[in-house]
Design goal:
The protein is mainly alpha-helical. It has 12 helices and 2 strands, in the order ααααααααααααββ. A hairpin with a 6-residue loop joins strand 1 and strand 2. The longest helix has 34 residues.
């Protein structure tokens, strides 16, 4: 017992456990993973899906140098083990498309994942998701409209999907079409995460509309005073606003003191706003 205590003391003082170079992903081959699963493919897919979600959430919590390099390989393993795993395809595409710092910013990988889903299943929702990736993150409105149109022809597809294809072609990139897209998604899905994403994007669009109005008022103030306001309180008083301008989450907007450009605060959950090309 005395020897055991002594060994434990030495161990606690100077011994560090072995940590593999890649503790997240031991396997990269879907074919090998299927052989090792010994017929329990669905169970193994569930395990790797949980790892993918935990990995993605954990990387989002890192303060700096966020790296999502193992996200796609994990999703690749999940869908190789269970080619019908709809949540992995749809959520995985959202995870992959999310721009930094909230995600890897890899819509190309999201497209590859969803194209594999279509090859396996052909569900109209995958076509909608592909159009969504092209529209929101790649700003390729022609491709987005094509995927919406293809999805509208699939069995069980809602009638509004064909109209969405037409709207995307006619007004692709406009906030109106973006709002329609996210509103349709909000009413179409049952997933709490995807609904939260749609609500988040709609609030971003509301913030962009508010910034446009504030920018007009800011220019009016500059023309009248020959300078930028010294504070939001001065601006609100001069423009007869009810108070300090707040974004849809209740956080005050910020103004660049050199240029007068208005934006959401980095402290807001709406930051950063999407590029104007993706209105």
């Amino acid at each position: 017992m005395a020897a055991a205590i002594g060994v434990q003391v030495v161990r606690d003082r100077g011994w560090t456990p072995y940590e593999p170079a890649n503790a997240v992903l031991w396997l990269r081959s879907g074919a090998l993973a299927k052989r090792l699963a010994l017929g329990f493919d669905d169970l193994a897919a569930d395990v790797y899906w949980i790892r993918a979600v935990v990995y993605y959430g954990g990387r989002r919590q890192v303060a700096a140098n966020r790296n999502y390099e193992h996200l796609y390989p994990l999703l690749d393993l999940v869908t190789a083990l269970d080619p019908q795993f709809k949540a992995a395809y749809r959520f995985g595409a959202l995870f992959l498309s999310e721009p930094p710092p909230g995600g890897p910013g890899r819509p190309d990988q999201a497209i590859a994942l969803l194209e594999r889903a279509i090859a396996q299943d052909g569900d109209w929702e995958y076509f909608e998701d592909l159009g969504f990736v092209h529209y929101w993150w790649r700003h390729d409105y022609i491709s987005a409209a094509e995927w919406f149109k293809k999805g509208a022809a699939r069995p069980g597809a809602p009638s509004w999907l064909l109209g969405l294809a037409a709207t995307t072609l006619a007004t692709g990139g406009s906030r109106q079409s973006s709002r329609q897209l996210w509103t349709q998604l909000l009413g179409d899905v049952d997933s709490g995460y995807m609904k939260a994403q749609a609500e988040h994007r709609l609030k971003q669009l509301d913030a962009m509309d508010a910034i446009d109005q504030l920018t007009i008022a800011m220019q009016r103030f500059r023309d009248r005073q020959g300078r930028l306001p010294r504070s939001w309180q001065e601006f609100a008083s001069a423009e007869r606003l009810p108070g300090v301008p707040l974004d849809p989450t209740g956080v005050p907007f910020v103004v660049n003191p050199a240029t007068g450009r208005i934006d959401v605060s980095p402290k807001s959950t709406l930051w950063p706003l999407p590029a104007e090309g993706g209105k």
